[in-house]
Structures are given as structure tokens and as C-alpha cells.
Specification:
Blueprint (H helix, E strand, L loop, with lengths): L4 H28 L8 E4 L4 E4 L1 H19 L1
Antiparallel strand pairs: 1-2
Length: 73
């Protein structure tokens, strides 16, 4: 059965693991200084703050592309 309790339980545990891993990545990014690179846009106004991490996302994309290409071969 595709949607049996065991499969749903595994799916939920997998999602929780991904969320926990994402949380750890964000904590490490803050410690490493990612998110405040030159090229990241930060706009602060009276009641509004907009942060667009362009350079950080490019760096993360390049690193993930390299990692996935290594595992692919």
C-alpha cells in the first residue's frame, strides 16, 4: 500500500531530517559569514527590511553543483 502508516511515517521522518539539516546549514552559514558577502543586498527603511542574498546563493549553488557532480560520477 502506497499510503500505509509505515510509508507516511518514513516520509515524515525524512522531511524532519531535511528540515533539521537545513537548520544546521543556516546556523553554520551564520558562523562562516555567509549571508553578509559583498553583493548581498540589504535595504533598511523605517518599517521595512529587505535582504536579498544574491552572492550567497550563487556561492551555495556552485558548491552544491560541484558536490552533486562528484556523486554523480
Amino acid at each position: 500500500m502506497l499510503f500505509g502508516p509505515e510509508n507516511i511515517g518514513r516520509l515524515l521522518l525524512g522531511i524532519a531530517a531535511i528540515i533539521a539539516l537545513a537548520g544546521l546549514v543556516f546556523l553554520l552559514m551564520g558562523k562562516l559569514g555567509l549571508g553578509r558577502l559583498p553583493g548581498d543586498i540589504l535595504i533598511r527603511r523605517e518599517n521595512l527590511t529587505v535582504f536579498v542574498p544574491i552572492t550567497t546563493m550563487i556561492v551555495i549553488s556552485l558548491v552544491l553543483t560541484l558536490i552533486f557532480n562528484l556523486f554523480r560520477r
